[in-house]
Design a protein that fits this description.
The chain is of the alpha/beta class and about 270 residues long. Helices cover about 35% and strands about 20% of the residues.
């Protein structure tokens, strides 16, 4: 009888341990609707804002900065470009010439990436490894709607969906939350795969309704507006913020350089 009990006990312990691992793998940060935030990608990060989370650059932010922010009770989202090559990044040489497409309009030192490339995905997976190693709570992969752009490659809507889902799955595999950046046309298809949305200028371009599916699913929409009128005209700002609050969006008015020269929040 003892001979039978031992393997059964061992099996139960093994299954229990496996269940714990599954739970841990599913235990990443999930920001709530109306979360407060600060977004700064350029310059020395101002750590003094009383907000729930910071969105900062993956490469430029030190482990010590991330740990200080977290020690003060803030979550940290780490930004990197997933859809474009940036020639100043420390891993820029990891991309091959065939990975690189046309130059981004307005950004002479960036080129579109072939999101179908296995090699590109390997480089991006290493960036997600870096985010996990630095202790980021989540990531913001940028330029994930390039299928609508003349990139120099011939990929389509379904290629973009598959690529974005790849990023989400790889982030979650590493215990990282992940935000869907812009890509308004694919929100309904991707809302279940992502933990929050980050949008730029949805009020300016009348795209905010596209992101309501995130709110309906209990996931926040982090929105940034860049129009100077929202800084210079209190009435215009109040009107926009009233609309943002009605939608339960987390809207900031920021400089387009995201360098903390000014900051206006629609949330208290």
């Amino acid at each position: 009888m003892r001979v039978l009990l031992f393997p059964l006990t061992a099996l139960c312990l093994l299954l229990s341990s496996f269940s714990s691992l599954l739970y841990a793998a599913d235990d990443w940060y999930r920001p709530p609707v109306s979360v407060t935030w600060q977004w700064q990608l350029d310059g020395v990060v101002n750590e003094d804002y009383d907000v729930d989370l910071y969105d900062i650059d993956l490469f430029d932010s030190s482990l010590e900065l991330i740990q200080r922010l977290q020690a003060s009770g803030k979550k940290v989202i780490c930004y990197f470009s997933a859809g474009s090559y940036e020639d100043w990044r420390p891993d820029a040489e990891d991309f091959t010439d065939k990975d690189l497409g046309k130059t981004l309009s307005g950004w002479d030192n960036e080129r579109w990436l072939d999101i179908r490339s296995k090699h590109v995905r390997e480089v991006l997976s290493r960036r997600l490894d870096l985010a996990a190693e630095k202790g980021c709570d989540g990531v913001e992969p940028d330029n994930v709607d390039s299928y609508r752009t003349n990139t120099g490659f011939y990929f389509h809507r379904n290629d973009q969906l598959e690529f974005n889902r790849f990023l989400a799955a790889q982030a979650h595999k590493r215990g990282l939350a992940i935000g869907l950046k812009n890509d308004s046309d694919q929100v309904l298809a991707l809302v279940d795969d992502f933990d929050f949305a980050i949008n730029e200028q949805c009020f300016e371009y009348s795209e905010c309704r596209s992101f309501e599916a995130f709110i309906s699913n209990g996931k926040p929409v982090l929105n940034a507006e860049y129009r100077e009128i929202y800084v210079d005209d209190e009435s215009q700002k109040n009107t926009m913020c009233k609309q943002s609050l009605a939608l339960k969006f987390s809207t900031l008015v920021l400089p387009e350089a995201l360098d903390d020269k000014f900051r206006v929040s629609c949330l208290p």
